[in-house]
Amino acid sequence: MIRLSRRGWNNVLIFATLLLILLFNQSGKFLSDPTSTDAMHLLPADIPVMKIEFGSHLLERVGQGWRLRPSENSDEPSLTAIVQNWQAAEPISLGEGSLAAGVVVVVWLAGEEQGRVFSLQQRDDGVLVAHQGKLYQLPNAYLASYLPEGTY
User: Fold this and answer.
1) Which of 42, 49, 57 is nearest to 148 (CA)?
2) How big is the CA angle at 130 (ends 128 and 135), to the nearest 5 degrees?
3) In the β-sheet with 92-96, what is the strand arrangement from edge to edge?
């Protein structure tokens, strides 16, 4: 048996505890499946959208609701659904590319000084989205789910 003083055993326990903490912190990296990918979103779900610009139209947060200026007779539930569609959108990456004739949309998030610029175009199999030099597809989606009526 190993004979250690009380101070020696305390040091052994401290280093063993540190090694266990390190092991538990790093275990997520080598126990998780590296081939699995989490769903990608167009916008982060934890940062609120403050406003969305569609050319000359502006969809902006007013308290807990939304307002479209200039008004196109859109009701608040449909405007809320549009913002929720933006935050829940899970695109499929198509690689590098851009859209020549798309509808330009600028989404402003809380805490960000610049808006995120997207270009959208309706196709038969969904909506194509260009953002920061990359092309994405929203399969089985319609442009009307992401833009208020009369803005495109």
Assistant:
1) 57
2) 75
3) 65-69, 57-62, 49-54, 103-109, 116-123, 126-131, 134-139, 92-96
More confident residue, 26 or 135: 135
Contact 118, 131 (CB under 8 A): yes
Tokens of 60: 């902006």
Residue 12, in any domain of the structure:
no
Quick check: is 69 in a domain?
A: yes
- Per residue in 14-68, pLDDT (tens digit) is 999 999 998 888 877 665 554 444 567 888 878 889 999 988 888 898 888 888 8
DSSP string, 105-134: EEEEETT-SSPEEEEEEEETTEEEEEETTE
Domain count of the fold of the chain: 1
Number of C-beta neighbours around residue 107 at 10 A: 21
Provide Rg for the chain, Cα atoms: 24
Does some domain include residue 9?
Answer: no
Residue 105, Cα to own-chain centre: how many angstroms?
Answer: 15
Distance (Å, whole) CA 145 – CA 71: 18
